[in-house]
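Check out a protein:
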Amino acid sequence: MLQKATPERPEEPAMREVLDGHRRGLSALLPFAGPAVVVSVAYIDPGNFATNIQAGARYGYALLWVVLMANLVAMLFQSLSARLGIVTGHSLAELCREHLPKPLVYVMWVVSELAAMATDLAEFLGGAIGLALLFDLPLLVGMGITAIVTYALLLLEGKGYRRLELTIGALVGVVGLAYLAELFIAPIGWRSLGQQIFVPSLPDGAAVAIAVGIIGATVMPHALFLHSGLTERRARPKTTDERRRIIGLSNLEVILALSVAGLINLAMVVMAAGAFHGSHPDVAKIETAYQTLVPLLGGAAATIFLISLIASGFSSSVVGTMAGQMIMQGFVNFRIPLWLRRAVTMLPSFAVVIAGVDATRALVLSQVALSIALPFPMIALVWFTSRRHVMGVFTNRPSVTLAAIVASLVVLSLNIVLLLDTFGLVSL
């Protein structure tokens, strides 16, 4: 059996009140809220900014359906991840270590670690770019400030997980309010938006690469590992009915938190389409988007854009580091000091900048890399949540398993097309 590498969190009295039936309605959700809010940060990270700007600027509203589909897939798989942790008391990575062949476990660990580093590349660079543009700083200085701030935020977890969750929730709120404000500033064709959001289309081959990037930036491998770890020891149900109630509250939180994240993603594409599609369809860089916003929509719109980018970069970089720690701990039962984990995950970002690689291009490519890594946790989640010897009475219903399999096949198919194009075997 698995051995816990970290002590269990104490159950909050408010959680016990809910499970004993003394709290209902919204007050029953609040004690259990937190994991989905933390995970939702992964769905509005700077990688989303990069891919959504390209999608909106080049194709207008044509790829909104991809954002919508990716968000629905994310809801399904995040709910499965949370359920796995609640039912088994173990994270997805831990269950892989216990049930899968050792060679496969090590392959999954390496791929997942690389995906976590690719994630941090996008998140860390995004926050640094925002600081550099807002305060007219060298990018390396912005990276140094981002490193200090994110490490300070990570230290909050030692003061209790609630403080960190509230801080991350506040940063998500900043991003959401920023894009709500942008919708009042940017010109929007609401009729065209309504017509295209539910109509799947890929205008040309390059749209396939951007679509895969959107999926990679929305359905995140590290988020699937993290969610199960955040729920595994959050509460200690005494009966099957109590566990079922926790799962219901978790599903509700996933729907609410990821609906907010999904709306923010849609708003990103809509803003880029309204601001750039007609006159600047080639806008692809975050820096160019900021510089173009100033004459188009004014300094206020550009500043709001950067504030949202900084909040996104700070919060998602923290979450990415947490996920990386959980992945290592789960797969190989090994934990390294937080400062060392943070230093290792920052190295690729500094290497990219020092080597002169375009930062926004690196962001987009990192999202494609994440999409390639995504099938590993997706398939593992479908497998474990469909096994009665793992989940007991909480095994997936056939309809849920079918939906998860179809979603996985869609992602795999897009990944195969992208790989064939990368190696020149097909032309997009």
Notes: Residues 111 and 246 are 31 Å apart (CA to CA). The longest helix spans residues 240-277.
